[in-house]
Design goal:
heterodimer, A: 109 residues, mainly beta, six-stranded mixed beta sheet, 62% strand, B: 117 residues, 11 strands
């Protein structure tokens, strides 16, 4: 099974940088995903890490350390539209995805 | 990215009735689809894995007789909530994996919000 932990809430100012940490314990690691979910909507894919290191994708970057069971999502140049829940998800060898509880990010002007 | 469509988006039903939710992969074939449930302010919980042409695999604690899953074709999976009760009110989301994408990321349907009165 999977045990995935991430902070419940974070607040930041428009234009700032936010780092959302995620730690996990898993049996059969096969990739870590970050999804964004606005209230009442389905999740949308942000990033994917399967090897150690940093993946950069525009204003969003994601880092993975498999030995530490640790990942973070970095949001740069925050915009008001970035206010959402960010879900850390771990995939196992059966391609099943288990989600963390999500981190609600509130961006203030 | 790949497109997954879910219908209906909203459904309100009386306690004791059954509700069917459809999940379609529009531009790819999905041998496997996943059904999730999300209660307010909680994360997505995997309910079952839907396999085309065979029985679904249910997660621990999910009643297979209550949540009937049928995956009759490579582009359609259905979830039927039988004899629904107010505690079944939730946001149900399906997803599918598009094998052409190297990441193997899941693409999600729009979700179906079920309210049982």
């Amino acid at each position: 099974g999977q045990n995935i932990d991430q902070p419940t809430e974070m607040t930041a100012t428009e234009g700032a940088i936010v780092q959302i940490n995620c730690t996990y314990q898993t049996s059969g690691f096969n990739g870590l995903f970050w999804y964004q979910q606005h209230a009442g909507e389905a999740p949308t894919f942000l990033s994917y890490n399967v090897l150690d290191g940093l993946e950069e994708k525009g204003r969003f970057s994601s880092f993975l350390s498999r030995s530490k069971g640790y990942s973070y999502l970095l949001l740069k140049e925050l915009q008001m539209k970035d206010s959402a829940s960010y879900l850390c998800a771990v995939r196992d060898s059966d391609y099943k995805l288990s989600f963390g509880a999500g981190t609600t990010v509130t961006v203030r002007a | 990215g790949a497109v997954v469509s879910q219908h209906p988006s909203w459904v309100i039903c009386k306690s004791g009735t059954s509700v069917k939710i459809e999940c379609r992969s529009l531009d790819f074939q999905a041998t496997t689809m996943f059904w999730y449930r999300q209660f307010p302010k909680q994360s997505l919980m995997l309910m079952a894995t839907s396999n085309e042409g065979s029985k679904a695999t249910y997660e621990q604690g999910v009643e297979k007789d209550k949540f009937l899953i049928n995956h009759a074709s490579l582009t359609l999976s259905t979830l039927t909530v039988t004899s629904a009760h107010p505690e079944d009110s939730s946001f149900y989301i399906c997803s599918a994996r598009e094998l052409r994408w190297d990441t193997g990321e899941l693409f999600f349907g729009e979700g179906s919000r079920l309210t049982v009165l």
